[in-house]
Amino acid sequence: MIAFEDHFEMAEVEMRRLLELALSRGGDFAEIYSEYRVYSFINMEEDIIKETAESISLGLGVRVISGEKTGYGYTNDLSPESIKSAALTAAAIADSGKTASLPAFRKAPPSEDRYPLIQPAHQASLQDKIELVRRAYLSCQKVDSKIKTVKVLFQDQAQYVSVINSEGWAALDARPLVKLLCTAVAEKEKRKEIGFSGGGGRVGLEYFEQILTPEQIGREAAGEALLLLEAVEAPAGEMPVILAPGHAGVLVHEAVGHLLEADFNRKKTSIFWDKLGKKVGSPLLTIYDDPTLPSFRGSYNIDDEGTPPSKALLIDRGVVHSFLQDKLSARLMGRPLTGHARRQDYSCIPIPRMSNTYVDRGQDDPEDIVKSIAKGIYAEKFEGGQVEDSGTFTFSISAGYLIEEGRLTAPIKQATLIGTNIDILQKIERVGNDLSFGLQTGSCGKEGQEVPVTDGCPTIKISRMTVGGQS
Amino acid sequence: MTETLGARSLLGLAERTVSFGKQYGADEVEATVSDGREFSVDVRRGTIENLIEAGSRYLSFRVIKDGKTAHASSSDLQDETLHRLVRNAVSRAALGSHDECSGLPPLSSEKVDIPSLLLFDPEVAYLQTVQKIGLALETERIALEDKRITNSHGASFITNEVTTVLASSNGFVGSYDQTFCSLSVGLQAGETDERVEDYWVSVDRFFKNLESPETVARKAVARTVRQLKPRKVRTQTVPVIFEPGMTDWLVGFLFACVSASAVYRKTTFLAGRLGERVGNENITIIDDGLMPGRLGSRPYDSEGVPCRKTTVFERGVLRRFLCNTYAGRKLGLPTTGNADGTGVGPNNFYLLPGAATPQEIIASTERGLILTRTIGHGLNPVTGDLSRGAFGLWVEGGEIAFPVSEVTIAGNLEQILSQVEVVGNDLDFRAPVCGPTLKVAALTVAGE
User: Fold this and answer.
1) ipTM score here?
2) Domains and CATH numbers, chain B
3) Model's pTM, two decimal places?
4) Which residue is closest to B444 within chain A, CA to CA?
5) Strand spans (E) along A269-390
6) Across the interface, do A394 and B388 touch by the CB < 8 Å criterion?
């Protein structure tokens, strides 16, 4: 864990006065979210360190809830007048004439540390970080002479969050986040293909010695680009699809996870709003979202409303078990908090979000699953996906294989999978015993807010799905 | 929390950053300050859901020493922090690599008349909160009057006022004000398990030019209900008509492929192809930062280089890549006034319209797909390949027959540009990157 740094230095008595001001128009709930974040960035391409950057973000947001309404004001000017003005802006949402009395503050007990680390990246020297970048770069470049372009990015940040609210709750978190990403372009004759790999999480720099080395990351990116040089056009039409373990978790994230976020269900825009306790998918399917996984990119000690998070069981053997909650939705729906309120930064209102989402392991041997298909697609890696509340989703395969007579044969080029979630969930035929997670480099966007997430799954067979290729 | 900016000018902050940089030993320094006021209200089912009001200020700068560059940015603008950031940046630059293409552009003698660009609407600042809330409520109310609409994602009214200041050690000093406002509503139609959804948004710099609540509501309703009871279609290769919003998307992908940043990195299929034919006669694409009142207009780019009009594709032939100073130097090309932060960005980047009305284009199509929305990723600038989930309207005998869902479209950008049969006359600059309706002779539509 990294040590908490306070850049606000507001005494408890000032916080209390600010919360009282925020409730002065009769709001039900007020909260002050303060955030300080230091960020650094290194980019290597064309054999040189092309760019380094350092960024500081400091600001505070005041939120007031009145019934179903939310008022929000934020500022990065920390003068008493600006902070007061943010509180009054938020206060104006209410008009009830109700007066509030604040209870005594209770500090959140220190949680189990989810970011065990030795060498915090934000305290490491730039030289040490540049060395990691160079190692990934050179190992990628030397894999093959067909690797013509390499790009390596390193990003690290330390985010210090403090949440204090009118329920008297005060909580802190100091979240490290690191990412090393390598992109390779391979060329053969006129053809060019791109491959990528990366790693990181809420870890220290020791991760790159103990868990995943820059050399492994560089070689994997090169390997993928080289493989794609040999890829054939993906077929088009309906066919069986196997989701490879790990990266294919993005399907679960898109097709199911978003629609189980409480706000969409409270507003009845998600197709799951009336399906709590009902069977929506194959009994082989169990899905969790777990913000407590140590060192994972999507994890946190408290959520962005200060709630200690818990592992949420979303789908239990095909049945909708619960939604991902924030305070507003939990109260309006009469459901318990799950600790899934997140925000991109102090300028944003917290909303229900995923953290680390995965399909639980099943019983089947992954090889047997592949053997069960005569003609289909093995979807290995994805660029990303998107879902609509109505349940239609897509995701883009960036690497995969044809399945012919129970064997993986030619690698395939870019293709898109499309479906509607309930349909696909019912078509899950086999689930492997080989759960793994995708790269620790991904983020998820919702309503303009990006937060770090991961997703995972075992090998999964979907009996039929629409594949959009060119041939 | 002792000293804050108060009344000290934004320009002063930028200029001080430049002088700190010189003081700490940088050869060149460029500093940008942006100061914004944001208002946003979301309403849903007749009541306010969120109301946000805030001001924020942000500094970003780069220092160059011995041909080595370092960047930094901060929302903490206290002098103590600035000194530390600038000092760090100069010492960080020393650890970087020498790059002969780095550095600021020379100071240009051209000056753009800022008021004539019509970037700022004073009316936006004077709008009353009740009026802004009222617009959102009214839009949603009108939309929900339609009985086919079964749920609402809500309506929003947003305004932004932004002042941007730039100071450079090459002597450039500039400042301009901009406003933006938008009115939008998102809707669903159909019962829970057969829902369809869409939205409409009107965006403009000037409040008086914004579409009325009635127009926004009517368009959102029409776009949503036309998708009810969709069918799947068989996998086939057919003509595809891109609605303007879809052309915007295609033109946006093309921008990524003509950005000189991608070209010198060879991460675009258009690298090395200046002067070659990439599309057919119907493809003329312009980047123009000087169109009065348009969303992508600005007097000068983020390096202080005056904006201009650049013909990127002329009747199918690739004429220019869009450059900032650095990428231009890498390619031996002049900057085109497209610097945007540390990269290259579009100004108003648009496909020149043709003569046909959208109705004529549909009527000319015996059998095909009108593409109305796509979702997902699936764009690869290195190859030009694209593949996306799609929604649309099926055309039979020159008329819309039924809505289509759960299909994907796949193709290659160069092939698409070579097969544009007709370009519509309906370019409306709703977005900085945009185009009119167009018809592509053949694309693979994957379905059942």
Assistant:
1) 0.89
2) 115-225 (3.30.2290.10), 236-250+353-446 (no CATH), 264-347 (no CATH)
3) 0.92
4) A470
5) 287-289, 312-316, 319-320, 341-342, 351-352, 356-359, 375-387
6) yes
